Structures are given as C-alpha cells and as structure tokens.
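Please think about what follows:
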Amino acid sequence: AAADVTRMLRARGVDVVYYGNLPARLQRTWVMDRSGDREAAVALARWLPTARPQAWTALAPERLVHVSVLLGNDLK
C-alpha cells in the first residue's frame, strides 16, 4: 500500500522522501504537519484514497520534511 500511494503522490508532483511499513496497521490514516504549514498537510490529505484522513500538527523540523503520512485500514 505504501508503494502504491507513493507512486500516486509522485505522479502528482509530491517529493516522497521515504516510504515503508509500520509494525502494526492503524485504523485510520493520519497526516502530520511537520513544518508548521497545516494547510499543506490538509491539501495532501485530500489526495489520499481514504475515507477521512486526520490531519494534525506535530512539528519536527529536524526531519527536513513538510508532511508525514501514516496509512491506515481506511485506505481504499
């Protein structure tokens, strides 16, 4: 699933730095604003093939990314 979503996002021009799998699957998809640009996280969440991804701010400037995505069981 992570590889499929990565291909979809890259096709839309999103620079995906890394993708992988969590040890356990989440019930819902989460989109985390890492840079303080919540609107970017919300915009990206709308592109995901999920029912209703949750977006929130979890600043982590040391990660050098704008958004982190954790895919859940709501992935279509």
Q: What stands out?
A: The chain has a mean pLDDT of 90. The two ends are 10 Å apart (CA to CA). Residues 23 and 43 are 27 Å apart (CA to CA). The beta strands are 30-33, 54-57, 67-70.
